[in-house]
Design a protein that fits this description.
10 strands, alpha/beta, 224 residues
Amino acid sequence: MSKLFIVPTPIGNLKDITFRAIEVLKEVDLILAEDTRTSGKLLKHFEISTHMQSHHMHNEHKTVENIIQKLKSGTSIALISDAGTPAISDPGFLLSRACIENGIDIECLPGATAFVPALVNSGLPNDKFVFEGFLPVKKGRQTRLLLLAEETRTMIFYESPHKLVKTLGHFCEYFGEDRLVSVSRELTKLFEETIRGSAKEVLEYYTNKPPKGEIVVVVGGKSK
């Protein structure tokens, strides 16, 4: 029986990959990739020729059993996502759980993830925080926001650029216009940007300057 390696990949700057990550990706028998075209560019850059197989949110329920059988037969496998650490708002949880249920070892390498630098950059309290990932798009969104309005810990969200203004508007509505917010965009990339201020100020900024790229929003908790 082999083990599953969970390998973080850079969120932008290719130099953020670790020596160990490159070593593992070269030595395993198979790499599970969220998008083989995206990951193919990364592997080519680091001269990694390991065979890849697609493993994403639309097929992971169907492929988990087959992957478990490969691991049991001695195939060493690494799981990567398009960027960052697998299973953090990306595929990975189902496979990890299945490995644990089947007594298969898991080794998760430390490495790149977007929310940690965004949290540290924000200047908001980080001794206690809650990671919310993506808010519900429609059903359950209002209920979640009403619940989070009472949260006293710093909150971290992922958001797409075309929904950011709407989400900031909801923060103004449910959390209050004065709630402190930090938006980090394109972390580690050429046009990295962090905008801090009240929910109202940050909303006004992005209303006038539509955002692009990957976005992490950090929101201060409710004052006690």
